[in-house]
Amino acid sequence: LDHDGFMPVQQNYLLWKCIGFAGIGTFGTRFLVQWIYSEKHGESKIPPIFWWQSLLGTFLCLAYFLRQQDSVGILGYVMNVVPYTRNLMLIYRKRRIDAAAGFAVQPSVEK
């Protein structure tokens, strides 16, 4: 089968390897970010950047696995979008409610 039109720049091997590695790197380092954030607060906490890294890493990995036409990789990442997006929605909804109620908004580090 001819899949040249399947994705843009389909034949650029190095570009797609970089996208794949960027996705895995972004996805993997989110735990380092969460650990540092928890240590700073003296308790286990998950900052919003964790969920943003999760989404970005997922989209990059999905792009790579789609390009590779790897159904295992696609299945491994495609459903992640739902809980990551929902967590971000809950975080920002709580911030809006807190701001409307007059509570102090979290420091800009968490935005």
Characterise this structure.
It is a single chain. The protein is mostly helical. The protein contains four helices and no strands. The chain has helices spanning 13-41, 48-68, 71-78, 81-101. α1 packs antiparallel against α2 (48-68) and α2 runs antiparallel to α3.
Could you name the key traits of this structure?
mainly alpha; 71% helix; 111 residues; elongated
SSE map:
Elements: H1 13-41, H2 48-68, H3 71-78, H4 81-101
Low-confidence stretches: none
Radius of gyration: 18 Å
**Structural class designation:** mainly alpha
Helicity range of the residues? over 70%
The outline comes out as elongated
| Number of helices in the DSSP assignment | 4
What summary fits the major beta sheet?
Answer: none
SS elements, strand count = 0
The end-to-end span amounts to 46 Å
Q: Strand content of the residues, in percent?
A: under 5%
Order of helices and strands: HHHH
Overall mean pLDDT stands at 87
In brief:
The termini are far apart.
